[in-house]
Amino acid sequence: MRLALPTLLVVSLLAAPTVARAQSVDPSGHWEGAITIPGGEIPIQIDLAKDAAGRLTATYSRPENGLKGLPLANVTLAGRAIAFELTVDGGAKFQGIVYADGKTISGDVTAPIGSAPFSMTRTGDAQVIIVPRNAAISHALEGTWNGTLSLAGRNLRLVLRMSNAPDGTAAASIVSVDQGGIEFPLGLTQNAATLTLNTPAIGGDFFAGALNEAGELAGTFSQGPMTAPLTFVRSVDAKE
Length: 240
Description:
By secondary structure, the protein is mainly beta. The chain folds into 2 domains: about 5-125, Quinohemoprotein amine dehydrogenase alpha subunit, domain 2 (Lipocalin); about 135-235, Lipocalin. Helices cover about 0% and strands about 55% of the residues. Strands 10, 11, 12, 13, 14, 15, 16, 17, 18 and 19 form a 10-stranded antiparallel β-sheet that branches. The protein has a 9-stranded antiparallel β-sheet with strand order 4-3-2-1-9-8-7-6-5, with no helix packed on it. Strand 15 and strand 16 form a beta hairpin.
């Protein structure tokens, strides 16, 4: 799924300098800063937090472009050396150093077209995106669905999962298979036969559709000015 990410995704982070790995600093928090490119800066926000298993997770935001809480992959911390990766639109790898005072991270970002330095300052606690709580959906919509989004000359495979919980709520997520398996939690609303899906990471509704006579979930993908038809077909894997 092409998410119309800003020009940030065509710049890149390069390997950070070697640091003393003996001194570990907890990087959890909300970080704000910029990538410096010829002609100016690209503002970025990174939220670092630990999940229930104690693993470090990270999300990327650019509120001015409608991006909030985009999941980052391959988040690692070795001493004060930190790295994380954007897996969409060709990929971009961040590698940097957490300063000993725990208030600054700086390093380089590497993407297919080159590299650029970045620096961030910790401004508070991590702003963790809350997984949407949704009203229950009809049983006919539960399960795993597969679809392909054709946008800007590229085909992107998507896996949509929806299920009801015993407490009367529904959970949903979508995986972009061809963009590093990045997964987004979804908000979903069922109004009669129509299902609307959205995610905080890109803002707004990105799919609206309904079951057709063939049992397909057919509708339209939209993000800002971009629209494209999108049809999901139920997975044939009974285990799903």
